Amino acid sequence: MKCIYLVPLLAASSHAFVDCSKEVLTAVYKCADSLEPHDDHYVNTVPRIGSPGIHNAICYGDYPQCNDLQQLLGNPAANCDVSLAKGYYVNIGRDLLSPCANPMPPRTKDVELCTGTGLTLSEFSSKLYTDVHVGNENEHFVYNNTDRTLRAKSNGQCVEAIMTPWPGAVHTVPCNGNAEMQQWTIEKERVSALRGGLCLKAEPARRGAVVGLTSCNFGETSPAYFVECAAAKPKYVTVTSQGKRLSEYYTNLYANAPANNFNELFVWDQANKMLKAASNNQCLDAYKDANGKFKLHTYACDVNNSNQKWNFNPSTKTLEHATHVGQCLDADPTYADRHAQMWACTPNNPNQQWSIDTFTA
């Protein structure tokens, strides 16, 4: 769906302004005049025609006065510009028109939203929290494809973003489909506010965590963001030796008593023999330093990096390096700082015996 911005007309701009025909202008203003809430200023209403919510409403037939405009989709005559204010314009074909989905999605749909670890979004007393799935009404929301609201079934109110103070917060309030802070998209493994570039996010390993907002980073794979529960992926694991969990902290690895935090979660990519830390999206990496000693840290994941390849043997419970053969992941509990390390593989060494277990919040 298109995001509309008013583009300043600059003398040096590479875009040559193209005047619209009277027929096109009539269709544009007829549509803009029909939008609710009504605004006499076209600088505000015309760009809204291309917004996701209004576009869907046009496709559902809510604004028949916009049919003439929608029918210009693909017509070369629509490749023209409307000046909305001094120095500002929109291009009709590029900024306002896009095809309707076929078939159109249901106007509303019931959704359950989860972190990547399977914790479920839940409403209680107008606040949002995470919890294990219990199947009650607090976990059910209704998403409206027209006005983009996300309504909690438990109290009938809509999720609203509070942008200040940074990084903002969320709560539920009486629904208002025209309120920008109540408009959301559920796509690209994110629940994101239409305005502000912020996404719902919560501590993914802790029950009862308060749900808040954070900058959307669509290049990041993180279990802290929310997706529809049916699509929650990947499966996260913990890596444990002698009751101590492997954890990442500032690219270093440690084996500590379970803290049920983000740093203890990994993705075990068996096909590529890689362990990815959820806390920094880097992979377990063993390398030789200048003195020829093996060192352990996390590093940017690269499927072609031979330092990031590991073999897990469920019989011996060892995590042996696939490239540096004979070197195993080792955690000596007598170390004061509990750091993990690489060490020559030794049969039946409890410091080198690990379990890889699916994490259940």
UniProtKB/TrEMBL annotation:
The keyword Signal applies. Residues 109-227, 240-357 form the Ricin B lectin domain. Residues 1-16 form the signal peptide. It comes from the Eukaryota. Gene3D superfamilies: 2.80.10.50. Pfam families: Ricin_B_lectin (PF00652). InterPro entries: Ricin_B-like_lectins, Ricin_B_lectin. This is Ricin B lectin domain-containing protein. It comes from Saprolegnia diclina (strain VS20).
